[in-house]
């Protein structure tokens, strides 16, 4: 099988801190792959090594068959990169920015203009093409940045948390643009903190924690690996999540994850009857319950299960 991105034992250290401690990846050509993980897990550092912005401290990595250290120039010719912040001239219009970037990539003036028009249409920015980028909304800025990133027709596109800070509508508009990019055959490596985003977009997902990839699979298979259902309980004001954890563990053998700030607890259950029994136990103990719900597994549940298996250090 042909892989667009491969990494084996990829490491990066900054003095005494090891940011990436042995990442293994094999991303297929044309695949939309999402790399998930908390802040500080090593997502951006991994992207920087794969895009030749950082030299690895150890291990190997290749993009489109070219070693990121030995053949960095060849890698850069074949990739596009877009991140959280648009690298554009805010005083120029969207059309002018794209024409400028096209010229830098070697297009003739006529071809650059035609390509700018094509990209504005493709990313649904035609009506805004004549306006300065400084007047664009956050979502529009990300889309114009993504358009600039694909000017060179890259084989691989790296998107480093591109929807951070966007409102829900802008996020969904960018999702549509990323889907179109993938359908056109470009391999996409997306890093994100939004589990819903990865679930919606990715062919496969890799979870990174403590500087290494700890799980890789298709979203549906990752969720199926959890098994059972999830009982989510929102506690009433004054209820103690610690009491809930203790009761559900001792009475029903449930492993409970809690967010004490939001007074939300979650536990995996085998069936609806077990959830009903758990709620009954809390009611009998006079623990205030605001509301509760029983749901199929989600990527949140996968994440919590991985965190539990790795220990609290994974999210510190």
Question: What can you tell me about this protein's structure?
Answer:
- The chain has 316 residues and is of the alpha/beta class.
- It has helices spanning 43-50, 72-77, 94-104, 109-122, 138-149, 168-183, 195-201, 219-226, 241-252, 272-284, 299-310; strands at 3-14, 17-28, 32-36, 58-63, 66-67, 79-82, 156-160, 187-192, 204-209, 212-217, 229-235, 256-259, 264-269, 289-295.
- It has a 6-stranded mixed beta sheet, with helices on both faces.
- A hairpin with a 2-residue loop joins β9 and β10.
- The model is unreliable at 312-316 (pLDDT under 50).
Q: What's the quick description here?
A:
The protein has eleven helices and 14 strands. The protein is an alpha/beta fold.
* Mean pLDDT level: 91
The sequence of SSEs as H and E is EEEHEEHEHHHEHEHEEHEHEEHEH
Biggest β-sheet, characterized?
6 strands, mixed
Helix content: 25-40%
Shape: globular
Spatial strand order of the main sheet: 6-7-8-3-9-10
Helix count from the secondary structure assignment: 11
Q: What is the total tally of β strands?
A: 14
The radius of gyration over CA amounts to 23 Å
- Structural class of the secondary structure composition? alpha/beta
Distance between the termini: 37 Å
Strand content: 25-35%
Q: Point out poorly predicted stretches.
A: 312-316
The quaternary structure here is: single chain
Q: Could you give the topology of this structure?
A:
Elements: E1 3-14, E2 17-28, E3 32-36, H1 43-50, E4 58-63, E5 66-67, H2 72-77, E6 79-82, H3 94-104, H4 109-122, H5 138-149, E7 156-160, H6 168-183, E8 187-192, H7 195-201, E9 204-209, E10 212-217, H8 219-226, E11 229-235, H9 241-252, E12 256-259, E13 264-269, H10 272-284, E14 289-295, H11 299-310
Parallel strand pairs: 3-8, 3-9, 6-7, 7-8
Antiparallel strand pairs: 1-2, 1-4, 4-5, 9-10, 11-13, 11-14, 12-13
């Amino acid at each position: 099988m042909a892989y667009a991105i491969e990494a084996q034992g990829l490491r990066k250290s900054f003095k005494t801190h090891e940011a990436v401690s042995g990442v293994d990846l094999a991303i297929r050509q044309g695949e939309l792959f999402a790399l998930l993980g908390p802040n500080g897990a090593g997502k951006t550092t991994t992207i920087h090594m794969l895009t030749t912005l950082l030299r690895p401290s150890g291990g190997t990595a290749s993009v489109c068959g070219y070693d990121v250290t030995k053949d960095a120039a060849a890698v850069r010719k074949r990739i596009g990169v877009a991140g959280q912040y648009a690298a554009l001239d805010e005083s120029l219009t969207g059309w002018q920015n794209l024409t400028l970037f096209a010229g830098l990539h070697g297009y003739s003036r006529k071809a650059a203009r035609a390509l700018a028009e094509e990209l504005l249409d493709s990313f649904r920015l035609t009506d805004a093409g004549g306006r300065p980028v400084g007047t664009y909304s956050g979502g529009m800025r990300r889309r114009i940045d993504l358009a600039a990133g694909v000017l060179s027709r890259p084989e691989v596109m790296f998107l480093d948390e591109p929807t951070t800070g966007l409102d829900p509508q802008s996020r969904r508009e960018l999702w549509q643009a990323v889907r179109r990019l993938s359908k056109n055959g470009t391999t996409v490596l997306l890093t994100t903190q939004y589990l819903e985003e990865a679930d919606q977009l990715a062919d496969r997902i890799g979870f990174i924690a403590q500087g290494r990839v700890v799980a890789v699979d298709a979203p549906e298979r990752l969720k199926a690996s959890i098994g059972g259902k999830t009982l989510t309980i929102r506690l009433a004001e004054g209820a103690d999540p610690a009491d809930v954890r203790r009761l559900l563990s001792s009475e029903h053998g449930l492993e409970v994850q809690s967010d004490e700030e939001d007074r939300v607890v979650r536990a995996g259950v085998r069936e609806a009857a077990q959830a009903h029994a758990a709620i009954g136990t809390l009611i009998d103990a006079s623990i205030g319950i605001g509301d509760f719900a029983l749901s199929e597994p989600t990527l949140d549940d996968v994440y919590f299960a991985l965190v539990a298996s790795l220990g609290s250090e994974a999210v510190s």
